[in-house]
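User: Can you help me understand a structure? I only have the sequence.
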Amino acid sequence: MKTIGIIGSGISGLCAAAVLARKGQQVLVFEKNDQLGGRMRQFEAHGFTFDMGPSWYWMPDVFERFYEQFGYSSSDFYELKKLDPGFQIITSDGETLKIPAGWEELLALFEQVETGAADKLRDFMHEAEYKYNVGVKKLIYKPGLSLLELINADTVSGMFRLQVFSSFSKHVRRYFKNEKLIALMEFPVLFLGAMPENTPALYSLMNYAGLKQGTFYPMGGFKKVIDALVKICREQGVVFKPGEEISGIEKLNRSQISLTGSNGKQQVDGLIAAADYHHVESKLLREKDRNYNEAYWDKKTFAPSSLIFYIGLNCQLEKLEHHNLFFDADFARHATEIYQQPQWPDDPLFYVCCPSKTDPAVAPAGKENLFILMPIAPGLIDEPVLREAYYYKLMDRLESYTGMEIRKNIEYMKSYCVKDFITDYHSYKGNAYGLANTLTQTANLKPKIKNNRIPNFYYCGQLTVPGPGVPPSIVSGQVAATELLKKLNVNV
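Assistant: Let's start by predicting it. Here is the structure, written out as tokens:
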């Protein structure tokens, strides 16, 4: 048995811990915050329960594949509810597109918006399903250490169909002309990735996940997922050390590593860093032990940060669904203000999650729970006066849409932005989602999962393979753990 340290208890760290402990290793998880879960933490205030981060449950098969390793399914931990509509989009002309859960209803909606679009959607989804089956079920479980990993029967025979080096934007426009449908297909890229023209068409697999598989919600909130992973970890013998921040990593010899924490030093035989990759490299490691220098990180394209408002209302908003995308502004302009000309947006798109529409446990009876998110460029100046200015901007539009005086009915409000992401997660430039999935930052072109200078040291999470999002983070932890086990000569 080897002693393995894991820095960070976000979803990738928990998945890594469970896999390692299942193979007989002694696993210690160090978490700087008092609460486990990283960005998937939860807090309660005035009778409201707020998920702090992820709110979209896509790719349920990735969750199930992980649980099955331990003899479980999601239903053992929480009720997973499929949303119908999955979400709605509020457009610039005041129209609302409700995205139905049923496939035939979705085809009818596309045809209603654009003549011939139903047949185009069938063709689009046929290709997207192929990418999903190859990409999500096979390729994303590769560690990204060698190009040879990408050469197999599926990738060789389907290289052109995978469209790794084709533009997502051009791909979508081959099928659809209507700007509303284009915005619908491109929104996962804007919120989680990069400019659509710089994103590989491979990521149309996200459209398959969101539109064909559907959008789900774990009753009780996303902390139910963290609770499930913590339970699995504890059953495997994982030891958690919340409130213990690691401040230094030092190579002792070829097989041992010393960790300096707030409670002293800990010697381990292997290490997985599930904390922010840049923070680990720049603050915890000596310069000679780093994979990358500051110039490397400065050139990378990061996914957005976010300005978030957690709001508890003493009334209900009839016009909102569980997920609401306010695309009543210029999509391209806001994307440019995030990725190409970083600045606080002039007329932003934003997202409103209202989980109390689905889950009565997250708000008192007759009241509403709101999570309002505006994507912004990482690294922006974050001051109270700016948060307040955008609070009024977003509320003006939300009140206009709902026809209600929301501000007068607020019982609780908390804002969260760049400074908070840095304080809570040591997030590079306060990014919220990790490294963008651009053409030059895909698969093996992402920061490496293995430390080149210290044996038995690996990275996982949203700044390495396979990328940002909850399902990729689940995969990332498993991949890092598997590679470390191989390094330790443990049968995997």
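Now, to help you interpret it: The first strand starts at residue 3 and ends at 7. The mean pLDDT is 94. Let me know which part you'd like to focus on.
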